[in-house]
Amino acid sequence: MKTQKKIKLKIMKTTNDKLLESIIKKTGNFKDTDLDKTILLEISKKLVDYVVEVDSSTSKEGSVAKSLENDLYNKINL
Amino acid sequence: MIIKSVKLKNFQSYYGEKNKIEFTEGLNIIAGSIASGKSKLFDAFYWVLNDKIFVTGKDWVFTKNLGISFVNDKAKNESTAIDDLIETSVEIVVKNNNERGSKNINYTIRRQFLIKRRELGDCFSSENWNISSSDLSVEYIDKVTSNAEIAKNQEAKDIIEKLFPSKISPYIWFQGEALDKLIDFDNKGTIRKAIDYISYVPLYKIMNNIISEVDKKITNRARKEIGKLTSDISKYEEISKKIEQKNASISNNKQLIEEKSKSLALRKEQLDEVERVLAALVEFPVLNEEKIEIENDLNTIGESIQRLDINERKKFSSLWMLYGTKHLFKSAADRLIEFEDYRQSLISKEYELPEDVPGDVYLNKMLDQEICLICDRPAEKNSNAWNNMKAKLNRKLKPEYLSEENEKINKEVGGFKAKLGSLSRNYDSIHDEILDHRKKLNEAYEERIIYQDKLQQVKDDIDKLYNKRGIDISDGTLTHRKKHGEYKTLNEIITNLNRKIEGTKASIRDAEMDIAQLEGELSKIQRSNDSVKVIEEEIKKYTKYLSSHIANIEESEYNKLINLIESEANMSFGEITSVNNTIDGYIKIDRETFRVLNVDNDGRELENYNTGHYTLMKMCIINSIISLTNEYKDASYPFITDAPTSNLDNKATFAYLQSISETFKQSIVITKDIDENEIDNIKNKDYVKGLFHLKIKNDTGNSVMDRKEAFTNITTIKN
Questions:
Q1: Most buried among A45, B3, B329, B551, by the most CB within 10 A?
Q2: Which of A1, A72, A77 shows the shortest C-beta gap to B662?
Q3: pLDDT value at position A73?
Q4: What is the gyration radius of the CA atoms in chain A, in angstroms?
Q5: Considering Cα of B373, then B379, then B380, then B385, what sign does the dihedral take?
């Protein structure tokens, strides 16, 4: 069967892996920016991880945004 | 996921409890003649999961409203005593392969409904029975504890939602008759919902919300921190405060739009329903079509206004920023002119100085000739005079400001100055562009007013029509009047809601323009110390970058999915239509209205295609959505359909069946009766994995099938 074969051949990846992959791919591995790629990758990873935590409730998005903000302060030191 | 079996007890035409079908993976065909219990079987699947069934002419009906009508008649007829209890139940066993944590668990989903005899009158009268509500349970073995668990009520519903997500279930359960009720392709939300389920679009949305939230906070904080470093702190703070207020009002307005849009969608659904009833009248469809056309035109105009707005706003922000820098550029240009004047004065001064005269050429000449050519006195070699002249050689060192490096900088400064000049010239065109944008927007607004008037005219015509009809029609006049009243009220509510939403959108646009202007003003205020870096400003670069990219990914993911759905649908459409010369063209999903169209090679919509044709197109879209869900979610769902091919000929029917057998891990197709001569042929087809036959019969030998005696008999031919 067409679909079954496709599924079997595919390496099983988690939703998170696929999301992160797509961000890296669609941004051309952050090629078009002079920002630090390591930091960008870490922020993207964090964002992807949060997606699992957050359901569609806005309040949770707010609190997750707060912790991401704190992470960024710690990460980007002048 | 696989449906392993279905068991029915006293459910509609299925009498007693010996009604069980064991399915296999792949294509399962259940055939039967008219009134043999085919649709009842489909109802059974739907009822056990949803507590409701589709009744022609009545729409979806819940158990409580079905009463005793779906309890088997023979069973009711056999009741002879008060307090007799009849159990009606459906049980399906589902093997779940989708969820990682619960792989290969069998779930036994059972819904039961009891009726108890109250009076000994007519057994088919609901007055003589007490009815209880239906009872749902899900049994499974917990993988961790190996205990048998029974979930009831909400817990059971949650398991069913996990197994058959509601966003995708309309595509799993497909009944030819209820097709338009199940999946309304004219409704934009239908395909959108499916895309939300099968793709990661909603996850990108969450990500975007998070990063935009951070970006908003950081931008505010960055503004505060930069404010502390500016030459005019109080003015900076004052403007910042205004920006914050505008942002807060934008957030409020956005929330308001969301609320109004929700209620608008609800009202539109209600209006659709009323319109469906009204559409029965002859004249209404023509006017309604005209109304839809005008509404579509209005949508297009609305979208072009929005597009104009978005494009121009993006441009505007940068133009305003540029405009805000006018003051800075001007003072920079003045400084450059000052610098050039100063440099020129130094050069002039250089040429005025006589100390380096005579130059080295003359000095060498004098040294060679041993004579001072200025005073004409001899200067013998190695004499004091000759040595004095020699000491003057190489006196003129190249001034530092003319060094190679400085000249390079000077060249760059010149270039920069020229760029500044051309930028300053652009300031004039900014003003023109703003005026031009305003003009375009005004034109679009005017056009919208014209179309709104046209729409009102059509609505008035519809109004008149119903006033007229309300008087003319004797039967059902009351219904028409009532529906007409509802139609009018709903239209008014919708118009008001639309007006409010448009108004709020305009306020948001204005606030955004104001913010751009205020940002421009902020940029005019210079920093007192440029070397101090602000951490918030650094973080802002990251949040801005990611926010814009994730929004783009969300949009492109959505577009990609629509393209995929269309191309997969066309693959199966091509396979099926290749055996039938009367059907041609391609399936196209209109990107604006999400209508499913049949088009020729050049994308022009084909005319005069029949219902069967249209049904086939819809089914191909459904195949495509389920198939993509399987791929995207690493999950598989069975495809259960009743009478999908009643509009197709035999060749197309089998091409369709073969196509779905290749798409789905399991499909259960309930179809019209098969000719006895055809049974072996179908049984021997490789892609047919299960074949069952339904027939109505009785135990009395009577050739007339009385409802008190007749029941559905299931024969397994292949599984």
A1: B3
A2: A1
A3: 85
A4: 16
A5: negative
Q: How far apart are CA B175 and CA B668, in angstroms?
A: 12
Q: Selecting from 1.10.10.10, 3.40.50.300, 3.40.50.360, 3.30.70.1660, what CATH number does the domain B2-164+637-718 have?
A: 3.40.50.300
- The distance of A25 to chain B (nearest Cα, Å) reads 10
Taken as a whole, chain A contains a residue count of 78
Which is more confident, B199 or B381? B381
Coil, helix or strand at residue B191: helix
Q: Do A39 and B542 touch (CB under 8 A)?
A: yes
Contacts of A76 in chain B (CB under 8 A): 535, 538-539, 542
- E-strand ranges in B97-203 read 105-117, 129-131, 135-141, 148-152, 173-175
* B209 inside 8 A of chain A by CB: yes
Per-residue pLDDT tens, chain A, 78 aa: give them: 344 334 333 444 577 788 888 899 888 888 888 888 999 999 998 888 887 676 555 567 777 788 888 888 888 875
Q: pLDDT class for B254, splitting at 50, 70, 90?
A: confident
CA angle B653, B656, B661 (to 5 degrees): 125
Query: A69, B217: Cβ pair inside 8 Å?
Result: yes
B660: left (phi over 0), alpha (psi -120 to 50) or beta: alpha
Domain assignments of chain B as residue spans, ordered by start: 2-164+637-718, 235-354+419-510
List CB contacts (< 8 A) between A47 and chain B. 207, 210-211, 546, 550
Q: Per residue in B115-141, pLDDT tens?
A: 999 998 888 888 899 988 889 999 998
Whether the Cβ atoms of residue B230 and residue B528 lie closer than 8 Å to each other: yes
Would the CB atoms of A77 and B662 count as touching at under 8 Å? no
Q: Would an 8 Å CB–CB cutoff place B635 in contact with chain A?
A: no
- pLDDT higher at B12 or B614: B12
Please choose, from the candidates B307, B313, B251, B325, the residue with its C-alpha nearest in 3D space to the C-alpha of residue B514. Answer: B313
Q: Is this prediction's pTM over 0.90?
A: no
Residues of chain A positioned with their CB less than 8 A from the CB of B663? 1-3
DSSP states along B39-57: HHHHHHHHHHHHSEEEETT
Complex ipTM value? 0.83
Do residues B72 and B12 make contact, with C-beta atoms less than 8 angstroms apart? Answer: yes
For residue B200, the chain A residue with the least C-alpha distance is A19
**pLDDT tens digits for range B514-572:** 888 888 888 777 777 777 788 888 898 899 999 999 999 988 888 888 899 999 889 88
What token pair was written down for B129? 């029975």
Query: Which positions in chain B touch A48 (Cβ < 8 Å)?
Result: 207
